[in-house]
Structures are given as structure tokens and as C-alpha cells.
Design brief:
D-Maltodextrin-Binding Protein, domain 2; 2 domains; 9 helices; 13 strands; 36% helix; binds glutamic acid
């Protein structure tokens, strides 16, 4: 009798242990619906309106797109683990397998396509300049000899060097929030990156009325969802999810919710697979 009780108890413990192993595994490779595992997704943590970490959770257009895509892959919001992927870390994070996919204002470029694959595009933005309200900078050529901030590993910094402001004094920081703080303090004269990002910062309460966007449209930035190179199955599923998001109204809702407060006039929904050069 006593022995039987012990055996029953051990069986119960064993069952619990097995159940815990089944649920607790961090196998984010399964994309089937109803998965009980977690999925790691790379986003930005410091970009208001796109990817922002706040005390009560994460918000932004990239967060909403990623959440929608994850759901189509079989993951509920509480199964998502958000991982910060700064501009310079994105290719490495995918190559190492730190995250399953990245939705982090991540422009599709040929250089990056040599290392990772992209689903999308799901948004078309344009590189622009953010300056102080009373600044005399109104176009890229006004940047010569001026201190210009951008972020390491971004297309924005690369375009400055290759292209439109070779005589600017480029300061490369790790994230855009640092550039914006520099603009406020006067450490830099302008910040350059996508208009979508700059509009989000300019509308924040703490900066309201202090900055202006120049409206320069210096480039086309086609935002893609980055995946590990060669993971065609995942890529196709994400493209299907993005098409669904655009056709069922969720894309438009996410745009209004996240860009509306900043007054950002976004381009219409891109056609999936169609990159605007
Ligand atoms: N979209 C540009 C890029 O992918 C600039 C924004 C960013 O650094 O995330 O580099």
C-alpha cells in the first residue's frame, strides 16, 4: 500500500517533469500553428512609433507587424520574446540564430541580401533630416562642415558617406535616441535617418515644438523582415502573412495607430515583393 503510494507519487512527478520539458523548450524553429514554444523577434527598443520599449510593454508599427506575422506562424502575443537588435547588430543576430526574424526599420539592400534574406517590403520610408526649429539647414548641401548624427550600420550613415553630404562631420552613435539627445543639447546640428523614425521622435512630449523635419526625401527605404539566409519556407510564410495583413485592413489600422499621433504621412502599402529603387 505504502509502496503503491510512492510509485503513484513518482509517476505524477515524472508526468509533470515531462510536461515542463515539452512546454519550456525554447524551440522557436517550429512555425506550426498552436505551438507552445516561444519565438524570439528582433526589434528596436528606442524608436517611438516603430519599436519602443516602455515600462508596460512594447509598442510601434514594427511591433504590430511582427505580432501579426507571429500570429500567422502560430504564436500568440504572450509567446513572443522581444530582443533588441540595433542597426549594426541585425545581420549578425540573424546569422547567429539569436532571433527568428527581425522587424526593425530594416531596409532591404543588396549588401545586406548577401548575408540575410528579406520578406516584404511592408513599408516605404525616405531618408530625411531633423534639425532644430530655428535651424537654417533646409537641404543636404547645407550640411557641409556641419555636425551630422546618424547610427552605425544604418543605410542613413552609409548614404551620407557615399552620397549626399561627404563634407559633413558625421558622428555615428549606437542608436537614434542618442542622436536626438545630441540634437537637443547642441552637440550635433542635424540627425539623418528615415522620415518615419524622425517624425516619431519629433512628436514626443519631451521634444514637442523643438525640432522640424526638412522633408528632403533623400532615398527610398524599403522595410523588410529579415530572416536567416536560405530559410525560404519561413520567408514564404512571412510574405503570405504580410499580404494578409495588407488585405484584411490590419496594416492600415497599425499605420493609423502608430503614425497618426506623429502626423507622419506614410506611403501607401507596398506590393509584397516590389522594391522601390
Ligand atoms: N532603414 C534604415 C536602415 O535599415 C535606417 C534605420 C535603421 O538604422 O534602422 O539602415
Amino acid at each position: 500500500m505504502k509502496l503503491r503510494k510512492v510509485t503513484a507519487a513518482s509517476a505524477a512527478v515524472l508526468t509533470l517533469a515531462l510536461a515542463a520539458t515539452a512546454c519550456g523548450g525554447d524551440d522557436s524553429s517550429s512555425g506550426s500553428s498552436g505551438s507552445s514554444s516561444k519565438i524570439k523577434i528582433g526589434i528596436k527598443f528606442d524608436q517611438p512609433g516603430l519599436g519602443l520599449k516602455q515600462p508596460d510593454g512594447f509598442s510601434g508599427f514594427d511591433v504590430d507587424v511582427a505580432t501579426y506575422v507571429a500570429k500567422q506562424l502560430g504564436y500568440q502575443p504572450d509567446q513572443i520574446e522581444w530582443v533588441e537588435t540595433k542597426s549594426a547588430d541585425r545581420e549578425n543576430a540573424l546569422q547567429r540564430g539569436d532571433v527568428k526574424f527581425i522587424a526593425a526599420t530594416y531596409s532591404i539592400t543588396d549588401k545586406r541580401k548577401a548575408k540575410v534574406d528579406f520578406a516584404g517590403p511592408y513599408l516605404l520610408a525616405h531618408q530625411d533630416l531633423l534639425v532644430k526649429k530655428d535651424s537654417t539647414i533646409t537641404k543636404a548641401t547645407d550640411l557641409n562642415k556641419k555636425k551630422l548624427c546618424s547610427v552605425t550600420g544604418s543605410t542613413s550613415a552609409q548614404n551620407v558617406k557615399n552620397d549626399f553630404a561627404q563634407d559633413a562631420q558625421l558622428r555615428e552613435y549606437g542608436g537614434y535616441s542618442e542622436c536626438i539627445a545630441g540634437l537637443q543639447s547642441g552637440a550635433v546640428d542635424a540627425v539623418t535617418t528615415d522620415d518615419s523614425i524622425l517624425a516619431g521622435f519629433a512628436a514626443q512630449d519631451k521634444y514637442k515644438g523643438q525640432f522640424k523635419l526638412v522633408g528632403a526625401k533623400l532615398s527610398n527605404e524599403n522595410y523588410g523582415i529579415g530572416v536567416k539566409k536560405g530559410d525560404t519556407e519561413l520567408l514564404n510564410k512571412i510574405n503570405d502573412a504580410l499580404k494578409k495583413m495588407e488585405s484584411d485592413g490590419a496594416w492600415q489600422q497599425a499605420v493609423e495607430k502608430n503614425f497618426g499621433p506623429a502626423g507622419y504621412q506614410n506611403e501607401p502599402a507596398p506590393q509584397i515583393g516590389n522594391i522601390v529603387k
